[in-house]
Design brief:
The chain has 323 residues and is mainly alpha-helical. The protein contains 16 helices and four strands. The chain has helices at 2-30, 33-49, 54-67, 75-80, 106-116, 128-133, 145-154, 164-177, 181-195, 201-206, 212-222, 232-236, 252-262, 282-290, 295-304, 306-311, and strands at 88-91, 96-99, 156-161, 245-248. The protein has a four-stranded mixed beta sheet.
Length: 323
């Protein structure tokens, strides 16, 4: 009986060993071993350090799977690159790094970072426009190389996502439907000239009256992105920077409170008043505006924002195709 047991266990051992070596060979062949080590050395260790919800673990795992297909890029070189200045904010006081994304509660989170750093005394102290223009000495892209390494190893790094189409609609409403002169002149003028042939020169130069349909087709054909509608993936580069926490607009209050608790700032509460002053919600407006574009156009938009959809586990509501 004993020889049979020994043979059985030896057989099991060799089967498991062969399976493991086959998996390693596959990973090396596909060039993904470095990414797996990156995952183990960053997010996994941070998850052990902080107690995070099961929901948060699911989001991190989803991102990790997505990132396995992406090429490896030098982290420090990326962070120091000129094109990425302005999106990252750091609170050295609370060891926090935040990637700010327009149209995803960025104004309120900038207020929180300023409060953590002692730049303001309360979350209601600064007007909306002031928060965006306060000189920042703590921008991630402006600190030294040594500090960058320290921040990446020791600080809680997070960003917040939102359904790509809902964010796109929010950006359109805020920058075009609300008659934002700057955006109308910068983007409205070329959009009108692309789509309309019967306007006067004065009407063209005003950039006013751009429809959602016109905006979307211009975006698809010209591939012009502003930070307000650029994919979250392109702004925060979560496959390059090893973020520890992924918030979502859909669970903003819960996620924000969890982040503040993790850094020991339980006395600060994220603003509960999340209304943007509009009578129609962005989700309702999304259905209304997407009813003006074709299913083929929706699919093209999906391809433009596919990284956000896949990395952050968003789906296209079927209802959009039947409006």
């Amino acid at each position: 009986m004993m020889p049979f047991c020994n043979f059985y266990f030896v057989s099991i051992f060799f089967i498991l060993f062969f399976t493991f070596m086959t998996f390693i060979a596959y990973i090396k062949y596909s060039g993904n071993i470095d990414k797996i080590l990156w995952i183990e050395n960053s997010q996994t260790l941070k998850l052990k350090e902080f107690h995070v919800s099961k929901n948060q673990e699911k989001r991190i795992n989803q991102l990790q799977l997505f990132c396995l297909s992406k090429p490896k890029i030098d982290l420090l070189k990326f962070i120091r690159s000129r094109e990425n200045k302005g999106h990252f904010y750091v609170s050295h006081e609370k060891k926090l790094l935040y990637c700010s994304v327009p149209k995803i509660a960025s104004t309120n989170w900038k207020r929180v970072v300023l409060l953590l750093e002692g730049k303001i005394k309360s979350l209601t102290e600064n007007a909306k426009d002031t928060v965006h223009t306060i000189p920042q000495t703590r921008l991630f892209s402006l600190i030294s190389k040594g500090e960058v390494n320290h921040v990446l190893k020791n600080y809680l790094k997070f960003f917040i996502t939102r359904h790509p189409f809902e964010r796109l609609v929010s950006a359109y409403r805020n920058k075009f439907a609300d008659n934002n002169t700057y955006f109308e002149r910068l983007f409205g003028v070329p959009i009108l000239r692309m789509h309309r042939t019967n306007l006067t020169n004065t009407e063209y130069e005003s950039g006013k009256g751009v429809t959602f349909n016109e905006f979307v087709h211009w975006l698809i054909e010209r591939n012009v992105f502003d930070a307000h509608w650029a994919p979250v993936y392109s702004l925060c580069s979560p496959c390059i920077i090893p973020f520890d926490f992924i918030g979502k607009m859909e669970t903003l209050l819960e996620d924000s409170e969890e982040i503040l608790s993790m850094i020991g700032a339980k006395n600060i509460h994220f603003p509960a008043n999340l209304t943007d002053g509009y009578k129609i919600s962005s989700k309702k407006l999304m259905y209304d505006l997407f009813s003006t574009i074709s299913g083929d156009t929706i699919q093209k938009l999906y391809k433009m924002y596919e990284a956000d959809f896949v990395a952050f586990d968003y789906k296209i509501p079927e209802k959009l195709f039947y409006n």
